[in-house]
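User: Second chain of the day. Same drill as before.
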Amino acid sequence: MPSECIIVTGGAGFIGSNYLNKYVPRYPDTLFVNVDALTYASKKEQVQAAKEQNYRFHHTDIRDVSALETLFQTYRPTALINFAAESHVDISIENPSLFVETNITGTHNLLLLARKYALNRFHQISTDEVYGSLGADDPSFTTATPLSPNSPYSASKAAADMLVRAYHRTYGLNTVISRCSNNYGPHQDDTKLIPKFITLLLKGEKVPLYAKGENIRDWLYVEDHVDAIDCIFHKGESGAVYNVGGGKELTNRAIVDRLLALTGRNESFVEHVADRLGHDFRYSTDAGELERSLGWKPQWNFEKGLQETFNFYVKKS
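Assistant: Same format as last time:
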């Protein structure tokens, strides 16, 4: 039996599957137990590492605490990385209860069991959206930026982060929280901006751009993100929060222009639609603290990452 066992919740999703595909083979002496509810955004087949001897999969929802406890009793995990979350802002506006149940109650179920079974590490994967929205000239988010979430999604993630913090401060649970900027890359669900727009343009359909497309996001290639997660999981200080950013701020309009160029489409393929309710204007994440404390910095430039992402969806189409 491996000396270490990590439960990875949400490992069939976009970021989780990329993490498992890279790190299951890298750590053959660690057993990785992927626990996923297989919602619309998750696909078990995305985990190519499933062929490895140190990988297991269980179709389990983190809202089901009794099913989770069975897994804890079976595997006696030493650590947990929580990727599992409902993460689509538009869906959170339509159905906020789902986000409360999964992102808050589900995370709390994991914390209860992490404490009961004395895990050595609990890593919460969070988002820079918990900090709220910035103006055009505001300084980037740091870990000292007050939490000010504006959507049901980001509010549910902020609440989960506060529960993780409380379990560290009250019960001494060894925790780390990482808050990432907008991810992109292979295996992302095509409800998200970049894969959705690539897919539509390849089909010769118009892309729906909110308002004038002036909203700004900091873009992080998923492989850079999973490398940061591995770094934080192994080297992060207990109780600490780390921001993970790609250092590439672009307007949504600028993203569309790049995708039009890649697909050979023109302006007629852009349809301006009514803006999202409570649409945050700008996210900008300062990852300098992570570089200074743990030595991580992004390796992928945006143009290279976007080309890799585009190639993936061309092959998929």
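The longest strand covers residues 30-36.

User: Great, on to the next one.
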